[in-house]
Amino acid sequence: MSRLFSLILVIVFASEAVSALDFCVADLKGPQTPAGYTCKSPANVTVDDFVFSGLAKAGNTANLIKAAVTPAFDAQFPGVNGLGLSIARLDLAVGGVIPMHTHPGANELLVVTQGKILAGFISSANSVYYKTLNKGEVMLFPQGLLHFQINAAGVTSVAFVSFSSPNPGLQITDFAFFANDLPSKIVETTTFLDDAQVKKLKGVLGGTN
């Protein structure tokens, strides 16, 4: 019983010590764990760890999806490590799209700052929620649900997205199916697409097999 009590005291004091930290700036040279990066020594922390300038510049949209996401996650912005939040910039050229994707580790909040964006998500009950968002409008995407963003204007559209995690994770459905070496026969069986469609999509997205 005394051993159990001692163990409980150790756990309590350890958790209090962690919660007493003002911050845990990521040590990008150290290991990354499921809980985030290990902390940089406070003696080496500077104001630059809490400032990120990368979102001021538009991302390069000269690509297949005509879109760019500029992240300010813990790997780019060490100050957010352990704080339960992060942000990114989304640039969508005319015709640009962020395909169906999920963030397994975070909720997402999007605010449009330029143009118009058609955005939506699908619930686990397969209910669909989508709307064309104008400048200044905000939309929420719950954690783990499939969602998308499409440029709905005749000009480049821009949004900023915040997340409830310093590393929200990302899986793009199209790439998960067609940008790897999963055998085409399995893809065809699980998606009900025919062989020609699967091979075409693998060709476009870089998949094999």
UniProtKB/TrEMBL annotation:
Domain Cupin type-1 span(s) in chain numbering: 53-199
Disulfide bonds: 24-39
Positions of Mn(2+) binding: 101, 103, 108, 147
MF-aspect GO terms: manganese ion binding
UniProt KW keywords: Apoplast, Disulfide bond, Manganese, Metal-binding, Secreted, Signal
Subcellular location, principal: secreted
Region forming the signal peptide: 1-20
SUPFAM superfamilies assigned: RmlC-like cupins
InterPro entries per UniProt: Cupin_1 (IPR006045), Germin (IPR001929), Germin_Mn-BS (IPR019780), RmlC-like_jellyroll (IPR014710), RmlC_Cupin_sf (IPR011051)
Pfam families in the cross-refs: Cupin_1
Localization (cell): Secreted, Extracellular space, Apoplast
Residues involved in oxalate binding: 103, 108
Annotated family: Belongs to the germin family.
Name used for this protein in its record: Germin-like protein
Species this chain originates from: Oldenlandia corymbosa var. corymbosa
